Amino acid sequence: MGIITLTTDLGSKDFYKAALKGSLLSLLPSVNIVDITHDVPSFNISYAAFVLKNAFSYFPKNTVHLIGIDSVFNENTKYIAARYREHYFVGADNGIFSILFDDVPDEAVELNIMQDLKYLHFPLVDIFVKAAVHLAKGNRLKEIGLPVAELEQKMLLSPVIERDIIRGSVIYIDTFCNVITNITKDLFTGLQRNRDFTLYFRKSETINRLSWHYNEVPEGEKLCLFGISNHLEIAINKGKASGLLGLHLGDIVRVEFHS
């Protein structure tokens, strides 16, 4: 029984998510479908890549990850299936793979599955589903497409590093309103070298110590830590940091290290 995960911007209000699952079950009734999220902001490939990148490695090898972000018909966009770190990924070649993968995939093909005209505006339930089911059955990539040497590239906004300063930005806000930045643990510790630091955000908010757990400070107090994603987070113990601290996607944060 194969596993297919779903990461889409379809939301939960409309029939689209149900149509996608129904299409998968029609072709492979025994498939194990796992929702990663359907609440990606519309067309936001960087948001989707962050979520999937932090989730896929927890699944068994040969899991198929179907990505439905900005997947509507576009004659200039290829549809791709790729194998990366013993997992399979199916999605539009809109730049998401370059953000999702740290390395070149082991194998990638441009899908040549015939489009059913009935689903011309919704290839997610047609071409993508057929490719995902093919792979979930244990079949090979080369049977559904032709090899591609390069995938569409997108550049993410990276932290700016000065002598003793990291300038980063907010890239994700989770369900608990914890604020996740693009400053990774490796980047932070590499520049810190056991020095004290001050984290600045908004106009006057600061934090000057790392926590290991959210409950290391009293309830309602702010903290920063490296969470499961290994990115620097700003949080409030049992509070909603994003709303209470006025932090939003794209906001700038600054870490200064002290000699």
Per DSSP, the total helix count is 6
- Provide the β-strand percentage band: 25-35%
Helix content: 10-25%
- Envelope shape: elongated
Round the Cα radius of gyration to an integer and report it: 21 Å
First-residue to last-residue Cα separation:
57 Å
Question: Mean of residue pLDDT?
Answer: 93
Order of helices and strands: EHEHEEEHEHEEEEHEEEEEHE
Number of DSSP-assigned strands:
16
Largest sheet features: 9 strands, mixed
Structural class based on helices, strands and sheet pairing: alpha+beta
Poorly predicted ranges (pLDDT <50, ≥5 residues)? none
Describe this structure in words.
Helices cover 19% and strands 32% of the residues. With 259 residues, it is an alpha+beta fold. Strands 8, 9, 10, 11, 12, 13, 14, 15 and 16 form a 9-stranded mixed sheet that branches. Strands 2-1-3-5-4-6-7 form a 7-stranded mixed sheet, sandwiched between helices. Helix 1 crosses helix 4. The longest helix has 12 residues. It is elongated and about 60 Å long. The protein starts with a strand and ends with a strand. The mean pLDDT is 93.
List keywords for this structure.
259 residues; alpha+beta; 7-stranded mixed sheet; elongated
